[in-house]
Every structure is written in C-alpha cells, then in structure tokens.
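Duplicate of #3305? Posting structure anyway:
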C-alpha cells in the first residue's frame, strides 16, 4: 500500500489516538480536529498504514476548494522520522510538479526533502528550525498587570487589514488578509490597545493550535506587552482544556529565555523545521531551466519583513537584522542545500 486516504470515521479514530499523546502531538492533533470541524476544505488525511500508522500527512485533494493560503501545504507528523522519510518518497504522496510547503517536519527529515527537490530539479527554501515550548503546570500562568490607559481585548475581523500590513512578506503569501480573517474568526486571540483603539501588541492562535503571530509595535518593545498578550492567550486556551504552546526559533536565545522566565518548558521531540519547495520552471521552448541554488526563505525574500524585528525584539535593532541578513545571503549563495538547511537562522519569529 502506497498510502491510505482516511474516511471521516477513521480520521475521528486518529484524532482520539493523537489526543492520548499530547502535548507532543499537539501540532497535528489540532490540525486534524480543525479538519473534522470543516475548517480545512479541499484537504484529505493520508497515512502510511492503517490502523497501525507511523506517518500522517494532511494534503490538498481539491485545489478549487482549498483556501489559497493552504493550497500547496503538506501538514506532516510522524512517530518516527525514518518512517516519514520513506513515506515522502513514495509515488504520488507528494506532487513534485507543484509547489509544496512542508509544515513542521523533524530536522532529520529535511535532508530527504532536499534530496527529492534536487531529484526533481526544483528549489528548496527553509524557515529555521524551532523549539516547541508549552505550559505544563496545572495552574494557569499568572496574568501580567495591564498599564493604565490600555485595554486588553481580542482581535476583530477588521484587524485583519492591520495584521496583513504587519506580516506582509512572511510565510503565507497568498491571500494573507483572508488568512488572518479566518484565524481571527475561528480561534482565540489577544490584543492590547491604546486609548484610541490602536493595536500596540497582539497574538493569535493558529490552525495547528499554537500561539503565534505575536507582534509588538517597535516603539514598545522594551515593555512587558509581550508577556501580557502571551499570558492572556495562554490562559484563554488552558481555561478551555487546550494545550498552550508555541514554536520558537532555535537561535533566539533571548526569546527562549523569556519563555523560560514565564515557566514555559521545552517539549522533547518537538523541534521542527518548515520547508518550501518550488518545482522546476520550464521555458517556452519546453527546455528545462537549471535550478538556482537554494537560499533560506527568510534570508532570500524577506530581509525587510517584520519577522526580523519581532524575532530579535529583545536584542537587535532593525539595522542589525538587515546587516545579518545581508551577510547570510552572501554566505547562502555559495552554500549547498544541506548547508542552507543548517544555516537558515535570522528572521523567524515565535509562531
């Protein structure tokens, strides 16, 4: 069997299996739960074997029904990196003729995807590896005090326009505003506003159940606004019996320190990397065009992205981020795909 497409009853069984292994399975558990709620139209769930499975992939089966921001996404999970390596190489599991975004795969799997990219003469870019941090205590996190004159609230659909401006050029390239509107309308969020109702800081839940898109306006990054919205959103999730967790760039020691100071703990086996594959481009003469060297997604396209500022908001200025990006780009141009996967490390935030 190359793979099995699960029906609704089987997906329900799978969700119950994943629930028993939380928090380690949180990323795929919430994706599966949202699939069952109908929030991932045009997707299907496949496994390598059933009922005893090792690898799960949620992939697109109908382009016209899938949201534009998830059209080429493969949401992966495996109990064994080696099993996922073999699964991704099976015929028809991945359509290598189209773009493919692999979300949250183990770092051990990245070389296999790189090899497949080379085999199909495509290009591969990467978001740096991230640690998974979660709240594991029985008590709720302490709520930080809100400064006078500010209001702690939630995001509204109208805020999607602001979020698009703040994050334009980041991970979701198609219909970014639609993505944020969908997230805001379906999941929890937290926002801190001034007396005029302007957003000073915010964070929102994602389809994979993580706390992400945590943003603080540049002029307020020396305040506790980060802790206020993070603890508020974590408390909202935990009060509902959910897992409160997020992914942090492995190179951001300041952000790791902030999470630890708030008593979030590292989850073993939760280290992940996000990869984006672009297929071979063919010219008008139908002659293959040689693939260009892979360059990390954060370093190649998004030097001016807000990701750079948010990721290093405790330690770096915008100019410093840009200088680091320029140096990394120069290095990446002379690197092999394997080196690129190891060196992608400057512009990614807690998401």
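Output from current build:
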């Amino acid at each position: 069997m190359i793979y099995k497409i699960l029906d609704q009853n089987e997906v329900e069984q799978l969700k119950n299996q994943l629930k028993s292994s939380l928090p380690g399975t949180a990323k795929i558990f919430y994706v599966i739960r949202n699939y069952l709620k109908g929030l991932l139209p045009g997707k299907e769930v496949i496994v390598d074997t059933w009922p005893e499975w090792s690898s799960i992939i949620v992939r697109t089966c109908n382009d016209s029904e899938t949201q534009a921001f998830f059209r080429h996404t493969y949401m992966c999970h495996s109990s064994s990196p080696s099993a996922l390596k073999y699964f991704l190489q099976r015929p028809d599991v991945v359509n290598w003729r189209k773009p493919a975004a692999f979300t949250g795969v183990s770092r051990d799997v990245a070389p296999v995807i790189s090899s497949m990219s080379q085999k199909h003469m495509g290009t591969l870019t990467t978001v740096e590896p991230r640690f998974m941090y979660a709240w594991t205590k029985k008590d709720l996190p302490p709520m930080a005090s809100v400064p006078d004159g500010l209001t702690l609230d939630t995001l509204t659909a109208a805020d999607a326009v602001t979020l698009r401006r703040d994050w334009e050029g980041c991970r979701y390239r198609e219909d970014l505003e639609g993505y944020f509107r969908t997230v805001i309308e379906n999941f929890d969020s937290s926002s801190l506003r001034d007396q005029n109702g302007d957003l000073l800081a915010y964070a929102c839940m994602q389809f994979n159940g993580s706390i992400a898109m945590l943003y603080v306006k540049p002029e307020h990054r020396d305040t506790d606004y980060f802790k206020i919205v993070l603890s508020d959103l974590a408390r909202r999730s935990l009060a509902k019996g959910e897992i409160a967790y997020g992914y942090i760039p492995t190179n951001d020691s300041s952000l790791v320190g902030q999470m630890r100071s708030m008593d979030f703990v590292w989850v073993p086996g939760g280290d992940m990397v996000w990869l984006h594959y672009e297929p071979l481009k063919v010219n008008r003469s139908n002659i293959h065009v040689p693939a260009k060297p892979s360059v990390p997604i954060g370093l190649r396209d998004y030097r001016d992205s807000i990701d750079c500022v948010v990721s290093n908001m405790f330690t770096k200025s915008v100019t410093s981020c840009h200088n680091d990006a320029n140096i990394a780009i120069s290095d990446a141009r002379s690197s092999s795909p394997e080196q690129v996967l190891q060196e992608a490390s400057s512009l990614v935030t807690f998401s």
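Confirmed duplicate; merging threads. The chain has two domains: 4-131+270-343, 151-243. Residues 318-333 form the longest helix (16 residues).
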